[in-house]
Amino acid sequence: MRSHRPDLMQHRRRRLVLALPLMACGLVVAPVQAKAGVHQSSQALMGTRVDLTLQDDDTSALPAAARAAFAEMTRLADMMSRYRSTSVLSAINLMAGLRPVPVPPELMRVLLMARQAAQASGGQFDTTVGSLRDWNFDSSHPSIPSARQIAAQLSLVDQEKGLVIDERAGTAYLLKRGMRLDLGGIAKLPILQAGMRQLQRHGMANAMINGGGDVMVMGQLNGRAWRVGLRDPRHPEKLLSVVSLNQGFVAASGDYERFVMQQGKRLHHILDPRTGYPTQGPHGVTLISNQLEVINGLGTAIMVAGAEAGRARVARTPGLDALIVDADNSLWLSPGMASRLGRG
Fold first, then answer.
1. What is the C-alpha to C-alpha distance for residues 131 and 230, in angstroms, rounded to an integer?
2. Nearest Cα to 42, choosing from 157, 194, 209, 180?
3. Beta 247-254 vs 214-218: how paired, if at all?
4. Would you say 82 and 182 are in contact if contact means Cβ atoms under 8 Å apart?
5. CA proximity to 236, closest of 253, 251, 249, 215
6. What pLDDT band is residue 236 in, cutting at 50, 70 and 90?
7. How far apart are CA 58 and CA 64, in angstroms?
């Protein structure tokens, strides 16, 4: 599971996936050339930078559509942030062991997705990893908890038994004092999807939203499919390849996005809910699917479960393409991903 802080330092983190409207220089998000009907805007959100690119014949409609999308994404990000004291998620954490908390439908949907992801992964995805609260991977003031701290907090990590979701009542409840939810590994894609729906309501048919390496696209740019560059987890400064998409999601998880070094060992922000420590499996996972429910939370689960379990999970999941770079730097592509990259 991901553990993260919303500091501005995160805007400088390396991204495993770069959305590339045009492959001008190949390593960064390249600006779209000045063409009619193209609008680009960015905003700091969810501890990263969210980039939005739209194209439409009616140029007058583009700014308002972009503002509506960012407003909706900001509303949901504020609702689901564990670091915002007034958020609904913070209320759930504050009321742990005391009483259930009413939750809006949007948050309920994400919690149900988290439950499904946890069940499908056998507990390798677990939002109560937020209970491991002493990790901080901000390079400006990192924090590494002691073994005693981790052992004490690890007893609070158990989403299956510790999180009670009452759909009929519309409430969520953490059973033990000290338990905390962290939706960092499950909330971003639904938030991007909500932004895309706002764009559709404003009549947009061609758009890309890139949120710190998680990407959603629809339609085209300049009459061609969107081009999304995939970072190489073995060499994060380089692109591994480029895929073309007209619809769907690209989601990435990696062990180098945010990390601290201790005694020559890299400690990164994806925590194993079984141990309380950073995962020791793959260096990176990239997933592509047209279906949010298929892809959401899976990258984190594979980082925890390991490459072998990840390959098996991908093989039995229709509509999912995957790239996994294992701890030994070996590269594995699912048949669908190999086809996308021209290696089939």
1. 32
2. 209
3. antiparallel
4. yes
5. 253
6. confident
7. 11
